[in-house]
Amino acid sequence: MNLVLSSYPGHLTISERIQERLQQGQLTQFQVADFQDFLIHVDRNFLQHRIITNNVYTHWFQAGNATDAELRYFIGQFSVFSNQFLIAALLKVINSPTLQQSRASREILLNELGVIYRKLGATIASPSSKLEVDKDREGDPEFVSTEGTVDGGICRFRAAHFEWLIAVAEGIGLHYEDLGQRKHGSSTTLHFCDELQRLYGSDDPNIAEGASFAVENWAAAGFWQELEDGLMRIKQTRYPQLPLAFFTWHNRVEAQHAGHTLEELETVYFQPDFDRAKFIQGGQAILDAIAVFWDGLEHDRQRLSHS
């Protein structure tokens, strides 16, 4: 009996890569239908999580009405998450089950640390080729790229993501010594950082795979756009010189990361040691931790506004 692949009202569906493997006989119709059923579960458990579909804090932030105190608090807590993520990313490299997955993880970590993506067959544009307003919205082409590989790329201190965030912070009165370290984090921010290390950097490949898939799809689901919208309004009304490349660059690049995680899932799913339950467990747990982070920011905002 032939199995018919049906569509469903979710974000995830069978890719052309899977269709091609089916046509070439590398996968059976039963395997592909089973994978499609799994994607339905992933969509329900991950992409329909409340922190993806209804992030109260970022919805509020998008309006651009954050006070100076609220803005500084947000940047401070976000800097802790951003800097501490490096530990989780390194653990993911160390615990990668295959060389290919190790390289994929190193792409993310090394780019975070300042190795610029090198687009194959292209050269880095000169700094003078873009207007300053474009550099702020899209990133200075001397220091950023959203495509390519870090293999053969140039490492520059100013290309490190944390240095971009420092530039934002300095525009609102914060400095390096105010940012990024655990001592600056609230209990909810630190909970998220610890869960990233435990789950995203797990030595259980199924837990780590689920957490990674959830993190990248959360990052691609729109919260960066909400942050960018709010910061752009603040820049237009109060801080005209505020550099925002950290946020605008991440807003553009995260969709690519989500696509890579789907391709990686397509590879590991059909391996005999893949554990569906652990994958879901890892993804749900990290999304719950992400919710703790944003809920903490919202709770602290409400507390600050009433103090």
Helix content: 55-70%
Instruction: Write down how many β-strands occur, each being a DSSP E stretch of 2 or more residues.
Output: 0
**What would you call the shape?**
globular
- The separation of the N and C termini measures 67 Å
**Biggest sheet details:** none
Could you tell me the radius of gyration in angstroms? 20 Å
With helices defined by DSSP (H or I, 4 residues minimum), what is the helix count? 13
Into which percentage range does the β-strand content fall?
under 5%
H/E element sequence: HHHHHHHHHHHHH
Low-confidence stretches: 1-10, 124-128, 135-139
Average pLDDT works out at 87
By secondary-structure content and strand pairing, the structural class works out as mainly alpha
Topology record:
Blueprint (H helix, E strand, L loop, with lengths): L15 H8 L5 H19 L2 H4 L2 H6 L6 H27 L4 H15 L18 H7 L22 H10 L16 H14 L4 H15 L3 H15 L7 H24 L7 H30 L2
Helix pairs in contact: 2-13, 5-6, 5-8, 5-9, 7-12, 9-13, 10-12, 10-13, 11-12
Describe this structure in words.
It is built from 13 helices and no strands. It has 307 residues and is mostly helical. α9 (187-200) packs antiparallel against α13 (276-305). Helix content is 63%, strand content 0%. It has helices at 16-23, 29-47, 50-53, 56-61, 68-94, 99-113, 132-138, 161-170, 187-200, 205-219, 223-237, 245-268, 276-305.
